[in-house]
Write a structure and sequence with these properties.
Blueprint (H helix, E strand, L loop, with lengths): L9 H16 L6 H12 L4 E4 L6 H11 E2 L2 E5 L6 H5 E6 L4 E6 L6 E5 L6 H4 L3 H6 L1 E4 L2 E4 L5 E6 L12 H6 L2 E3 L6 H10 L13 E2 H12 L5 H16 L3 E3 L3 H17 L7 H12 L4 E2 L10 H12 L10
Helix pairs in contact: 1-2, 1-9, 9-11, 10-11, 11-12, 12-13
């Protein structure tokens, strides 16, 4: 018997989220920001894109999150010959009943791990668009609801890697956040050598929450207060990306909505029931950067053009004074 979402307390929220973070961190050494981002996406009902070179733990993070939550999990290995029907499902004719029967695809799970998503063709990638936005799939005119909660954790290699396809703009916009794992520091890499010589750390991970608890945590985060001035600040940040001459494509309205949703979870994880401006600025790069395109010929020394533009936007957009509940 789990708490009703309306009665969960701040202490219970903190206890559950701490257990989830600790469980994932037992597998992912020295990457607290990546672990926190994965949890934010889960509780903000978004989707996570992990982009980095092979071998730095992208899939390990996705599998650790899935192992920590006792819910249905499916992993899809994206390859050039993967078909849309393999993901969404297909209608198969039953000669006995003389009717078509829908056979569910791999997307029907609480947590879907889309491994190396950019190794599949754009057509196959786009089969996830409806699922990620509307939490349903439509096959032969019939819609089928996906489980609740529903999270896609996708990994991809940089576009310069051989055999990869760029994600369409509409697909990138469906992901709430894009993060990079980065290489571990020397201490974490040494510890990894010692601990993983004979034991797979995932085998020791036990589920510390189930889908019912996750729904309660989501309900708690939804109730975090966002002052009107904070909403206006989020809109001002998004509009600034659309008017910046160094950016060819600015943030979509969906990006603004997801920034606020992520900020609410960030505030809740910090023990607050209200959003402050730092919640937005701390998350604007992972939430906005993958959706934006730099204008042609724009180069900034020492930084990626999009990230440099976002940092300049943060510096020049006025910060509201009021962020607390009034």
């Amino acid at each position: 018997m789990y708490e009703n979402p309306q009665s969960i307390t701040a202490e219970q929220f903190a206890a559950h989220t701490t257990r989830i973070i600790d469980s994932i961190s037992s597998v992912i050494d020295g990457k607290p920001d990546a672990v926190r981002s994965a949890l934010i996406c889960l509780l903000a009902e978004g989707h996570l894109l992990i982009e980095d070179v092979p071998g730095v733990g992208k899939t390990m993070l996705a599998r650790a999150l899935a192992a920590t939550v006792d819910a249905t999990v499916r992993r899809i290995q994206f390859t050039p010959d993967l078909l849309p029907g393999d993901i969404t499902g297909v209608a198969v004719y039953d000669p006995v009943a003389r009717e078509f029967e829908f056979k569910r695809g791999a997307v029907f799970a609480h947590i879907v791990i889309a491994d190396e998503i950019n190794r599949a063709s754009p057509k196959t990638q786009s089969s996830l668009l409806e699922a990620m936005e509307e939490h349903q799939v439509t096959v032969d005119g019939a819609s089928h609801a996906l489980p609740d909660p529903f999270l896609v954790v996708a990994t991809q290699n940089p576009l310069e890697m051989e055999g990869t396809y760029p994600l369409p703009e509409a697909q990138r916009d469906r992901f709430m956040m894009r993060i990079s794992m980065g290489y571990p520091d020397a201490a974490a890499e040494t510890m990894m050598l010692r601990q993983r010589e004979t034991v797979n750390p995932l085998s020791a991970v036990a589920a510390v929450a189930d889908d019912s608890i996750v729904r309660q945590l989501i309900a708690w985060a939804r109730r975090v207060h966002v002052a009107e001035s904070i909403e206006e600040y989020a809109v001002a940040l998004a509009q600034a990306t659309r008017m910046d001459p160094s950016l060819h494509l600015g943030a979509s309205p969906r990006a603004t909505l997801q920034l606020v949703r992520a900020a609410k979870v960030n505030a809740a994880l910090d023990g607050r029931d209200f959003v402050v401006p730092d919640d937005l600025t701390d998350l604007i790069i992972p939430v906005f950067a993958h959706r934006l395109l730099a204008a042609r010929g724009v180069h900034r020394a020492g930084a990626q053009p999009v990230e440099a533009a976002l940092n300049q936007i943060i510096a020049r957009v006025p910060v509201p004074f009021a962020g607390v509940r009034v």
